[in-house]
């Protein structure tokens, strides 16, 4: 869908920047200096430096993405070749896109085993493969859902990034969730991020999820072909949530405190969170697969738990049925 395609465009930009920094065509610090507006990248203005403008393809048009959220996550890293470079980190983008493809719990993606996640792949897999998931909230043994080869590609790209890093911690093994009492043996985390080789914290992928939604919301005026699109976010006063009773009154009261030209602080509240990915995956599959097959081969859940994640409306059912019929 559109959200996945937008992620892919951002990942393409991210990889070009990473490649050019590694080849010394771009200085990471210089790039950061050019990105004066911290939350947004003007890809047209930085094209002379980056040499790339990401593009979003729809059924009828091609949209060059002039403004994109700054999800590069630039930080200093020591490479195996001895260089110390200001390097983009792909962790959050890769994790969120994998979750959107699979519906696997974010915690289990964060703690995938770098050495074994693709151990079940054969030489003849072209479209689908089994992903080795080495942890689970309830299971007593590792499990292996079926995923698209795009998921494997994303995870292998994450491993390639990890293998660039020459910091000692990146070769260290760790307990799942940093818990020595866990039933799972130590392993090298695929999403190693900290200097000690442990994965990133939850706020990294949550903040990136919100940034990507904000960027996509800004594209809506150019997506008239899609008809009415539900807003992805709202700007609300501090302390307010979208489901608060009396929200309209709270908005008027808050707004009345400020005059023309005065600064009015508002928080971005998105319509979905990273944990909505599982709902999206299950809701899509339920239109043409029974709950037992979804649980057994895709999400690793019991049918009753799969049903819990189904959130269908009439419009969603009709869209999925039409798209499924077109694929047959």
Please describe what this structure looks like:
The chain is 39% helix and 10% strand. The protein has helices spanning 2-22, 28-34, 47-50, 91-102, 106-110, 149-162, 202-217, 247-255, 276-285, 291-299, 303-308, 314-327; strands spanning 40-42, 55-57, 62-64, 67-69, 75-78, 84-87, 128-130, 146-148, 233-236, 267-270. The strands form five sheets. A two-stranded antiparallel ribbon has the order 1-4. The chain starts with a helix and ends with a helix. The relative contact order is 0.11. The mean pLDDT is 87.
Range of strand content: 5-15%
* Count of beta strands: 10
Question: Could you tell me how far the N terminus lies from the C terminus, measured between alpha carbons in angstroms?
Answer: 18 Å
Q: How many whole angstroms does the radius of gyration measure? A: 21 Å
Could you spell the SSE succession in H and E letters? Answer: HHEHEEEEEHHEEHHEHEHHHH
Main β-sheet, spatial strand arrangement? 1-4
Task: Give the fraction of residues assigned to helices.
Answer: 25-40%
Mean pLDDT: 87
> How would the global form be characterised?
globular
Summed up, the helix count is: 12
What tags apply to this protein structure?
328 residues; alpha+beta; two-stranded antiparallel ribbon; 12 helices
Task: Offer a concise description of the structure.
The protein has helices at 2-22, 28-34, 47-50, 91-102, 106-110, 149-162, 202-217, 247-255, 276-285, 291-299, 303-308, 314-327; strands spanning 40-42, 55-57, 62-64, 67-69, 75-78, 84-87, 128-130, 146-148, 233-236, 267-270. The chain is an alpha+beta fold. The longest helix is centred in the first third of the chain and has 21 residues, at 2-22.
């Amino acid at each position: 869908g559109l959200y996945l395609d937008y992620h892919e465009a951002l990942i393409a930009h991210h990889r070009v920047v990473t490649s050019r920094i590694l080849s010394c065509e771009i200085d990471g610090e210089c790039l950061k200096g050019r990105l004066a507006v911290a939350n947004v990248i003007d890809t047209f203005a930085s094209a002379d430096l980056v040499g790339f403008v990401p593009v979003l393809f729809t059924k009828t048009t091609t949209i060059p993405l002039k403004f994109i959220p700054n999800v590069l996550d630039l930080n200093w890293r020591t490479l195996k070749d001895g260089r110390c470079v200001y390097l983009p980190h792909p962790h959050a983008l890769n994790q969120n896109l994998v979750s959107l493809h699979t519906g696997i719990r974010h915690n289990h993606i964060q703690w995938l085993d770098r050495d074994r996640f693709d151990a079940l792949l054969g030489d003849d897999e072209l479209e689908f493969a089994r992903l080795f998931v080495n942890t689970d909230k309830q299971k007593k043994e590792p499990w292996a859902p079926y995923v698209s080869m795009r998921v494997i590609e994303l995870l292998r790209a994450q491993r390639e990034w990890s293998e660039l890093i020459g910091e000692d911690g990146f070769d260290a093994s760790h307990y799942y969730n940093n818990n020595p009492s866990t039933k799972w043996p130590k392993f090298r985390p695929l999403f190693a991020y900290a200097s000690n080789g442990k994965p990133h914290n939850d706020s990294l992928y949550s903040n990136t999820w919100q940034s990507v939604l904000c960027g996509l919301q800004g594209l809506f005026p150019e997506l008239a072909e899609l008809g009415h699109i539900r807003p992805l976010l709202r700007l609300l006063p501090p302390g307010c949530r979208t489901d608060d009773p009396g929200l309209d009154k709270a908005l008027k009261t808050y707004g009345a405190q400020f005059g023309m030209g005065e600064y009015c602080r508002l928080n971005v509240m998105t319509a979905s969170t990273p944990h909505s990915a599982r709902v999206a995956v299950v809701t899509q599959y339920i239109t043409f697969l029974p709950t037992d097959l979804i649980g057994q081969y895709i999400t690793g859940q019991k049918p009753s738990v799969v049903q819990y994640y189904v959130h269908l409306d009439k419009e969603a059912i009709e869209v999925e049925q039409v798209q499924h019929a077109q694929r047959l």
